[in-house]
Amino acid sequence: MKQATRRRIGHAVSYIILLGAAFISLFPLFWTLSTSIKTRNDTFILPPKFFNFEATWKNYIAIFDTRGFGQIYLNTVVITLASTVLCVLISTLAAYSLARSPRFRSRRPLEMSMILVRAIPAIVIMVPLFTITSKLGVYDNHVALILMYAAVNVPFATWLMTSFVGQVPVTLEQSAAVDGAGRLQILWHVVLPLILPGMAATTIFVALLAWNEFLIPVMLAGNSAKTLPVFISGFISARNLDWGPMAAASSLAILPIAILTVLAQRWLISGLSSGAIKG
Amino acid sequence: MKAKGSIERQLARLAEALVVPSWVLILSVFALPILGALWLSFRNETLGAFAPPKFIGFENYTGALADPRFWESIRTTIWLTILGLLVQMPIGIGLAVILERNLRGAQVFRTILIIPMLLTPVAVGLMWRFMFDTDLGVINWALSGLGLDGPNWLGARWPAIWAVVIVDSWQSIPFIMLIVLAGLAGLPKGPAEAATIDGANAFQVFFYITLPALGPVILVILMIRIIDSLKMFDIIFIVTTRGGPGTATQTLGMLIYNTGFGFFQTSRAAALGILMVLMVLPVYWLWRRAAERG
User: What is the structure's pLDDT at A10?
Assistant: First the structure.
């Protein structure tokens, strides 16, 4: 009896903590979305209006009317997709090597380089990259940005993919080899189908990281390759902070992610808890 | 025997070929620029200077080390790291332990709780900034409802540092929670059950059995969080407008940005970058150790 009571109290406390944490996790998201559909007057008022305001699309219209906004959104989508595909492909190949071949000459240097790429703050390479891209004439260039985005995410994607390749039983490959299949054939016909779910999870993650990437484009993109996070950051230098449009722009960055999270949560969580240990 | 050896060699050759694209990307986007930074750091390149740049030896380094702003930025970086860890580790581990109990609805809560780590830092930073507003922000409004006088969050050093810690924690706690959750799933249930039968309460089980068993996982999290604190950029850029008020939240990373892209002292910024790489190396060494042991 006493134990049952104690357990019930334990459950109640757990739920209170979880509800509090859920509230804190979601409130800024809710506040962004609600501010994005408020009029100016309802934004700058105390006590804050949580639900009792009149919804308006004005802020979104203001954002869409901003010159170049369509281009910015398109840039973000294109750079995200292209760099993600590139990164996942390259990382899958490297992961196959790391998972299946215990001894090849550049293995240790590669492992060490990947840790360094993950550990060294990217700001360090931005100053020289700015000089280099300017000299090469690829400052503000989509392809250059795609390569750089892919590069910064290669370690994370490789670790993730290595754990997925590692889950494929080696015996499958061995029996295919006995049957006379070549190495590339095995990779394509035996391994690839089995790691497709892992590749999907990795793709989602890398796409998220690329979508959110700020440091690279804020340094190395000018007007023609500007991305959404850079556009959003531009609001802080405005003299009059205009919170409505700012929230609308933020919502346009955040909403695709929130939807993705709900749709792909199982993959997200499996990926996060397996390979994310390192990244 | 001979056949096996040749297969192994064949595999090694394939492996070598498959990592070539990774090498190309890493060398061109990372190794080359770091060498570039090294080269720049021994010159006096500034944007818009009239005199042609030349080699000046270690002047950028001695100049940086003699600059109080450098040491201030190091202190700020260390404070943000320590405060962040103190806030994030207990909360992240606590939430994981609660979720691990698998109460009804735990899955839903888990999904909700990981959302912050996925959202665009720049966008959420902006929103937190709005919420931190002294007069119209919802945070100080809520505090005043509790009878508390909220600080001028972004107007003074310590409140601004705390503001950065809060936003950073909001985004990082889910990561810690998930990794601990994965660690908990891998622990054997036996010892905890035995202790419970012997009369240990939940806290004793946690502190004497679960937490020690999580040691290696926690070590890895600590390392990653330290690295990410050193890398923290987006949130500071937005929440305190690149390290403000004044230089109150200017971390080493932000100092590099402001030196290179605010004052256009390219070479000085490159030297600061090389110093930062040197500071990361001990953490890197720890990582290797942890990876080899795991």
Answer: 86
- The verdict on a CB contact (< 8 Å) between A90 and B25 is yes
How buried is residue A258: exposed, middle or buried, by Cβ count under 10 Å (0-12/13-18/19+)? middle
Report the C-alpha dihedral over residues A109, A111, A115, A117, rounded to 10 degrees: 60
Mutation choice for A interface testing from B6, B27, B30, B226 by most A CBs within 10 A: B30
* Side-chain half-sphere CA neighbours of A74 within 13 A: 9
* Residues A13-44 pLDDT 10s: 999 999 999 999 999 999 999 999 999 888 88
Q: What is the pLDDT of residues A239-261, one digit of tens each?
A: 567 889 999 999 999 988 888 87
Contacts of B266 (CB under 8 A, 6+ apart): A127, A131, B40, B45, B46, B47, B260
- Per-residue pLDDT of A203-250, as tens digits, reads 998 999 999 999 999 999 999 999 999 999 998 876 567 889 999 999
Residues in B touching A45 (Cβ below 8 Å): 136
Interface test with B, best of A53, A113, A120, A211 (most B CBs within 10 A): A120
A97: pLDDT strictly greater than 80: yes
Q: Do A116 and B30 touch (CB under 8 A)?
A: yes
Q: Model confidence over A133-152: pLDDT tens digits?
A: 999 999 999 999 999 999 99
Contact A183, A174 (CB under 8 A): no
Q: What is the largest CA-CA distance in chain B?
A: 81
How far does the CA of residue B28 sit from the closest CA of chain A (Å)? 9
A264 interfaces chain B, CB cutoff of 8 Å: no
From CA B272, how far away is CA B70, in angstroms rounded?
Answer: 8
CATH topology of domain B60-293: MetI-like fold (1.10.3720)
Residue B138 has pLDDT above 70, yes or no: yes
Residues 136-165 of A with CB under 8 A from B: 147-148, 150-152, 154, 158
Residue pair B36/A124 in contact (Cβ under 8 Å)? The answer is no
CA of B277 to nearest chain A CA: how many angstroms apart? 6
Which domains, ranges and CATH numbers included, belong to chain A?
A: 2-58 (no CATH), 67-274 (1.10.3720.10)
Chain B contact present for A254, CB below 8 A: yes
Segment B249-293, tens digit of pLDDT: 999 999 999 999 999 999 999 999 999 999 998 888 887 777 666
Q: What are phi and psi of A39, to 5 degrees?
A: -80, 165
